[in-house]
Write a structure and sequence with these properties.
Helices cover about 55% and strands about 15% of the residues.
Length: about 425
């Protein structure tokens, strides 16, 4: 074997063992980060965001250092040193014989994931060049950017077939806004959504997100990497919510805007808002809870036990209903129901869907929670059957949600142009105004 081939073989061996060892390294980093985040569950999202970012950075640096050390050890030897000699793992020799295949499979998946990211960036660049403009909302965005301390010029583009606003770009940022929002959403709510996107631009979140995509592409095979990345995105959304609330008319208006956006996506079967940004209802509840606190509350109050915070939030007595969750048309079939998988899913008619009544006993007991329902839409648009898939923890609230869904009307699902029965799913979220 010539020296270049020996060096290449040693490099493949070192990379393969680095990938193998990251299985336990990533698990250790994930556990330690999870413990730290659990201890900081009452802290500000900025601190949890920093901890999650540190965890993901450790997931990248540890295998990088491991690979560098293995390559150095291999380069110091006469030719390539078999990595099995210093793995410290049982059955290392047997595993080492498959390193070429392990590295080849890893490289193939990395290329596919990086190509996906590149295609997404190319689509954004194409939309920025070709999609429409709106002079009125561009002026509104410019004024809002100035008020929020964003010095860079932020472009606005109106895009069809987009589920929710998207921010992209570091040096020349752009906000892509669904055309349906400009024509259908109240101006003050759209203003709140734009403030949230400008908060991401102010914090340079797009650059951090690109680095996350790179880490996900290189270390795609480890669940801890994906969990940390999701946690980073969730905490990032909370930070952006806090920054935007001050320029969006307060936390309640931003919460209303998020709820309205989710309702529109629900009606049009589009992906849930911020799919990579965590639970939307947690964000809405947090905004409402934040507004309910006195302005003079100290930082230590934000770190109290969750039960204490919920008790204060439940002091309000008037109920509010928020619709959330993605629709899963045709995928919640129950035993014994002859339901045809539809070509076109059903749609809710929000104008004819009255809010369910909060039971008096539940209101007096300050009960709150989220119930997930599965319900069968008949060919006439009525609800033929409804069942609780996940309880709120309070039977009376579950029953009230079942009664409420029975009062709603739907456009039935269709198969080959004819109406058919189909199952759907929905969440009722009981929370105070």
């Amino acid at each position: 074997m010539t020296m270049p081939l020996a060096w290449l073989a040693g490099g493949v061996d070192a990379l393969g063992w680095t990938l193998v060892h990251f299985l336990w390294q990533g698990a250790l980093v994930g556990v330690l980060t999870a413990v730290a985040l659990a201890a900081l569950r009452g802290a500000r999202p900025q601190l949890r965001y920093a901890v999650a970012c540190a965890g993901l950075l450790a997931c990248v640096l540890w295998p990088a250092v491991t690979l560098a050390l293995r390559l150095r050890i291999g380069g110091m030897a006469e030719g390539a040193v078999p990595a099995a000699q210093f793995t410290g793992l049982p059955h290392a020799a047997a595993l080492g014989s498959h390193m070429e295949w392990i590295v080849a499979a890893w490289a193939t998946c990395c290329i596919m994931l990086l190509a996906r990211t590149a295609l997404g960036m190319a689509w954004i660049a194409h939309a920025t060049r070709t999609e429409g403009r709106d002079a009125h909302w561009q002026r509104q965005l410019d004024r809002l950017a100035q008020a929020m301390g964003v010095a860079r010029q932020v472009r606005l583009r109106v895009v069809r077939h987009l589920a929710s606003p998207v921010t992209a770009g570091c040096w020349r940022p752009v906000v892509l806004v669904p055309a349906s929002l400009l024509s259908g959403m109240p101006p003050e709510l759209l203003h709140a959504l734009l403030a949230h996107e400008l908060a991401h631009i102010r914090r340079h979140d797009y650059l951090v997100n690109l680095l996350q995509n790179l880490a996900e592409s290189l270390l795609f095979y480890h669940p801890a990497v994906w969990w940390l990345s999701r946690r980073i995105r969730f905490e990032r959304e909370l930070i952006a919510d806090d920054l935007a609330a001050a320029h969006a008319g307060g936390p309640r208006r931003l919460a209303h805007a998020l709820s309205e956006l989710e309702k529109r996506q629900f009606a049009h079967h589009e992906p849930a808002l911020a799919a990579d940004g965590g639970d939307l209802m947690k964000r809405i509840t947090r905004l409402l809870r934040h507004e309910s606190r006195p302005a003079s509350a100290s930082l230590s109050a934000s770190r109290r036990d969750t039960a204490t915070t919920l008790t204060a939030m439940l002091a309000a007595v008037l109920p509010a209903l928020a619709l959330a969750g993605a629709m899963a048309a045709g995928h919640a079939q129950a035993e014994g129901d002859a339901v045809v998988k539809p070509d076109q899913a059903g749609k809710i008619v929000f104008e004819g869907c009255a809010k369910p009544v909060w039971p008096a006993a539940s209101l007096a007991a300050k009960e709150s929670g989220t119930v997930t329902l599965a319900f069968l839409i008949g060919t006439d648009g009525s609800v033929d059957d409804a069942r609780v898939r996940k309880s709120s923890g309070h039977p009376s609230l579950d029953q009230a949600a079942l009664e409420g869904i029975g009062k709603c009307r739907f456009v039935p699902a269709h198969k080959d142009g004819a109406p058919v029965k189909a199952w759907m799913m929905m969440q009722y979220v009981w929370m105070p105004e």
